Every structure is written in structure tokens, then in C-alpha cells.
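Whiteboard transcription, Tuesday session. T.W. wrote the C-alpha cells on the left side:
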């Protein structure tokens, strides 16, 4: 027994190979999916790491599912997920994160604007001990006005936010498993992942990269959609607009008291004069009315977010899961597949 203890003392368990889950949110990306699969495979096979590629078809009106099915049939590393309707990219990422079996996940858009070739830099930082590695868009190949818009947005968002938000950092990132578990456990429904990623904390760092133009088709994010994204971000992580409304109201109230006091004194020290300034009164009425409507609309945005949360509807609904040449469409089959994925993770990697 003593001799056995001596041998055990100096024994060691072999280091298990890490596994990475690549999650791609797809919408109108049927042309880009085969190229994404090819570039991801070429990139990941150069790394000493196991991997799986999860394509999320967020109910695309084009043939995204057919392209994903072809990738599944040709590559056992690929898993395909189809949603019952379009739930948005944030829900698509969460859907993939809940399915992933890797020690870390990488989030990418399916339009190839997030270059797979940057992932080795993410892995390097991850191996150095960072729990979150996000891409920093030092430059984007887009019209000048869009570049300016995004730069302004991230700086406004950071100044308004209650937490430290990285500048020019989108969803493209590598997130360690312990952070993933925290993100998918959060109860809120209307999510903004790049904000939540900063909110959960842990060790984080950025990797600069150039964001290219969309390879195929046109972006679904027009100016109005970008404004919607900006509002979603700000109202999810800041109450400062409400504070500004309160301060604005206080200033107007104090100004009206001062003006009333001025006219009261002026009435007694000067003879009465005929009332004039109809245009001024109309402009003041319109201006104050506009300010009130703007304030009410801001309150409405916050109330709308509360309404979405109290409904407690699911973030997404999966209609099909594709693996190899199999299609799991029954909800019981989908549940069993997800449980087997999570069992793979907790049984092998933890």
C-alpha cells in the first residue's frame, strides 16, 4: 500500500483537449453559409482544439436551411437549428449557447462580416486566462455616414450606461463556458448580449479587427433598424434618460417660478400694458407640448420593456434540429438531443 501511494503521488491525469462551439446566426445567408463553413473548418483544423459548428436558421425566407442541411450531411462537426419564426439575432445566439457542448463558444453573424480567421487570436487570449474575448471594430468597410453613426452610438451608449461598455465591440466574441452558463440563466427576455456580456463581468479583453462589407446581398439593418438597436441598448442598460427628464422638468418649473416673480414685480413698478406676444405664446406652447410628448415617449419605451418581460414568453422556439442526415422535429426528440449535448459537456469536459 505504501509503495502504491508513492506511485500515485507522482501520477497525473492527461490534459483534456478543449472544445469550442461556433454559433452562427443566419438570416438571408444561404450564399454565405457554404463559404463560412469552409473558412471555419480551415481555420479550426489548424488549432489544437476540438470543435462543433452550430448554424441557427432564424426562419430565413431564403434557402438557409437547405444550405445548413448540406453542411450537416458532409461534416459531422455541424449541427443545424431552425426556429419556428424570426426571433432576432440575440435569441438565435442564446438558442445556440443553450445547445453548445464546448468549453467556450464563439458568436458570429452569418454574413461573413465577422472573419473566422480572427478566431485564433481569440483562442490565444482565451488560453492566456481571459473569460471573454470580444472583437473591436477598429475599421469597418461601410459608407462614411454609417461609420460615423456607429462611432457616435458606442460613445453615447458608454456614457449613458450604468456599466463599463467596450467601445466598437459587437457580438463577435469568444465566451468561456462559465460565462455562457451565467448568460443563459439570466431571466430577462428582451436581451442585448453585448451589454449583458459586459454586465456579467469576469476577465475580459478585446482583439482589433477590420469588419468587411457583407459578401452577398444587402444588410437588413437600415437606418431605422439601427436606431431601434440603439434604443434597445440604451433602455436596457441605463435609466439616465429618466433622470434627464426629471432634471429638465425641474429646470422648467424653476424657470416658470422666476418668470412669474418677474412679471409680478414688473406689474407693481410699471403701469399695466396691453398683452402682446401671441407668437411667443404659441411657440412656447408648442415647444413645451413637444417636450412633454418626447418625455412620455421615453416613459413608453421603458414601459414597453417591462411589458415584454412580464409576459414571460420564451426567447425562441426550435422547430427542427439537423445533425448528420437526421432531422429532429418532434419536441420530445429535440429535448432529448439537447440533453445529450449537455450531458456530453458535463460528462466529458467537467
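and on the right, the sequence the group agreed on:
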Amino acid at each position: 500500500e505504501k509503495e502504491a501511494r508513492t506511485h500515485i503521488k507522482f501520477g497525473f491525469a492527461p490534459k483534456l483537449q478543449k472544445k469550442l462551439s461556433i454559433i452562427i446566426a443566419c438570416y438571408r445567408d444561404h450564399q454565405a453559409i457554404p463559404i463560412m463553413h469552409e473558412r471555419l473548418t480551415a481555420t479550426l483544423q489548424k488549432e489544437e482544439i476540438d470543435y462543433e459548428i452550430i448554424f441557427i436558421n432564424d426562419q430565413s425566407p431564403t434557402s438557409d436551411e437547405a444550405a445548413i442541411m448540406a453542411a450537416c450531411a458532409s461534416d459531422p462537426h455541424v449541427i443545424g437549428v431552425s426556429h419556428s419564426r424570426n426571433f432576432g439575432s440575440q435569441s438565435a445566439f442564446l438558442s445556440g449557447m443553450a445547445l453548445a457542448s464546448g468549453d467556450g463558444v464563439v458568436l458570429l453573424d452569418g454574413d461573413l462580416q465577422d472573419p473566422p480567421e480572427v478566431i485564433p487570436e481569440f483562442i490565444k487570449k482565451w488560453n492566456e486566462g481571459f473569460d471573454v474575448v470580444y472583437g473591436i471594430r477598429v475599421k469597418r468597410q461601410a459608407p462614411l455616414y454609417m461609420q460615423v453613426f456607429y462611432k457616435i452610438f458606442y460613445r453615447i451608449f458608454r456614457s449613458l450606461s450604468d456599466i463599463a461598455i467596450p467601445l466598437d465591440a459587437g457580438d463577435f466574441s469568444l465566451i468561456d463556458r462559465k460565462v455562457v452558463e451565467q448568460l443563459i440563466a439570466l431571466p430577462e427576455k428582451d436581451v442585448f448580449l453585448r451589454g449583458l456580456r459586459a454586465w456579467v463581468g469576469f476577465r475580459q479583453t478585446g482583439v482589433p479587427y477590420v469588419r468587411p462589407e457583407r459578401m452577398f446581398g444587402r444588410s437588413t439593418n437600415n437606418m431605422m433598424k439601427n436606431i431601434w438597436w440603439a434604443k434597445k441598448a440604451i433602455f436596457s442598460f441605463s435609466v439616465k434618460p429618466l433622470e434627464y427628464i426629471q432634471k429638465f422638468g425641474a429646470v422648467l418649473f424653476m424657470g416658470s417660478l422666476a418668470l412669474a416673480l418677474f412679471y409680478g414685480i414688473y406689474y407693481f413698478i410699471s403701469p399695466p400694458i396691453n398683452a402682446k406676444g401671441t407668437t411667443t405664446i404659441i411657440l412656447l406652447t408648442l415647444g413645451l407640448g413637444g417636450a412633454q410628448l418626447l418625455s412620455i415617449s421615453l416613459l413608453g419605451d421603458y414601459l414597453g420593456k417591462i411589458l415584454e418581460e412580464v409576459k414571460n414568453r420564451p426567447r425562441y422556439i426550435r422547430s427542427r434540429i439537423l445533425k448528420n442526415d437526421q432531422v429532429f422535429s418532434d419536441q420530445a426528440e429535440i429535448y432529448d438531443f439537447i440533453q445529450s449535448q449537455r450531458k456530453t459537456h458535463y460528462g466529458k469536459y467537467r
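Someone added at the bottom: Residues 278-311 form the longest helix (34 residues).
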